[in-house]
Specification:
411 residues; mainly alpha; Na+/H+ antiporter like fold; 20 helices; 80% helix; sodium:proton antiporter activity; Cation/H_exchanger_TM; transmembrane; Cation/H+ exchanger transmembrane domain-containing protein; Na+/H+_antiporter_fungi
Amino acid sequence: MTETELNIILLIIGSLVLFLGAVSKLIRKWNFSQPFIALMVGFLLSSFELDIFSPGFWNHYILQEAARISIAIGVMGVALKVSYTYTFKNWRSIAPMLTIVMAFMWIINSMLVYWILGFSFIVALLVGAIITPTDPILSASILSGRVAEKNIPEKLRNLISVESASNDGLGYPFVLLPILLITYRPQEALSYWFIHTILWEVVGAVIFGAIIGYIAGYLFKIALSKRTIDESSYVTYTLALALIVLSSIKLLGADGILAVFAAGIAFSTTSTVGQRLDEDRVVEGMDLFFTTPIFTLLGLVAPWKEWMSLGLEGLLVSFLILLLHRIPILYLINPIVPNIRSNLDVLFAGWFGPVGVAAFYYSQFSMIQTGKEELWPIVSLVICVSVILHGITATYFTKLYGKYSRKSGNE
């Protein structure tokens, strides 16, 4: 990458963030989301004949790392925004979402890809796993702001937020299992998956992340009491914490994304009431600056020719995945999820399970590990369809939910 290309990239990112910040209220009024606008900008830029606007300019490693950092910022934002007490008090709602619902989503995604697109069974399992995690960045664009706060109950908003942040990290063992089955013999793959992936890369990551987060929170509290730091440093402190955990846990060979969320939850247990008053602005600022560019990048690297080769079957699979991978199972398990109280809640939580940056990250990771380039066209198509459909329906469906919820007295 030359100096000129780097400055063009910085110019685009800065201009886009500045523009979206200046017209954020108008975007909400127009019933669009910021990720949707960023994706459209990426599509537009890809039509210009410059190297940096060509998909071939960006290799898998660069895309993987850009997505990984964006996810880390997103899950840290959720951890800071949602009170840690909510997570502990509402575990009966969160647990089924992270076990039963995730497993069902994986199965449905894989079966649709296998039946309609004709992928091999193992590759279909991998594609299904990649698009299983609910994206916290897209979810934040749907669940934050005055419209969402006015129309969606806090418990339901928090449930979707915590689920999306948690299952981004928990998606890792789902993705790694078919990768191991592709690259190793079944017995070796299963042994490695349970001992190394589950016990070390997932459980170990949660423990280490929580320890680092708690220590960071304790030190921050001491610094405030000693007046060696002011509260305006909250944003930079928590951002630094996210990057420290993400990198250090990865160096230890564990899953850094899940560790960042655990660190954020542990950090928030040490927060004072005064600090938590500014957390919404912290979250919105971090999301806008660090996550908006990733959707522009997604638009830049969209594989249009490969999408055309998928034909109508690709669009059909994308739509069916978004429609069927959550709503049926949420309807079935509704009685055991206290925070989903009605069929209206089922429809809202079932539809707004967007596929986004997490799938972007896991697709690049999977292609690096397996060399299977056929993953990207269908995964990227599902992501873009999700960004578009959820982006244009978020405000309208949220208002519609509030309207019918008030009529039924279900607030």
